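Example (one chain per record):
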Amino acid sequence: SDSGGGAGIQADLKTFSACGCYGTSVITAITAQNTLGVSAIHPVPIGTIEAQITAILEDIGTDSVKIGMLHSSEVIETVAACLQKYPCGSIVVDPVMVATSGDKLIEDDAIATMKTVLLPMATLITPNIYEAELLTGIAIGDREDMAGVASILQQSYSTNILLKG
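Predicted structure:
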């Protein structure tokens, strides 16, 4: 959740609404941030995350899921387990790791967990350049590099890739 409203679930719900879609939400972390940076990240307890997912998927259901910032391995594993339990159609993963301000939003060990647990479940992965570099270990300097890294990610996860510049 982004208290500034420019990113996170607040921005996602505004986008869904503008596209005529009904969006629900599961909050996994509360951030204190604005255009200047992130001053705090407060994790939501795992049981609360599970309860939110269960409440939505056992009642309202979903045709698609869009996943954003998951700050820890435990949160990634919990979300993945819940999505395996309930059918949910397409899974879009935006592997948010760093805020626009440059502030880190994910624990170091969570990147490996995301790569092995969550990304293989995705229908579409939407990393930005920095996130794609972290996922592949390859520096991106130009559009040709972007295409090469997108191809590597596509082959690695057998899914669609939208690499954001």
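Caption: The domain at 8-126 is CATH 3.40.1190.20 (UDP-N-acetylmuramoyl-L-alanine:D-glutamate ligase).
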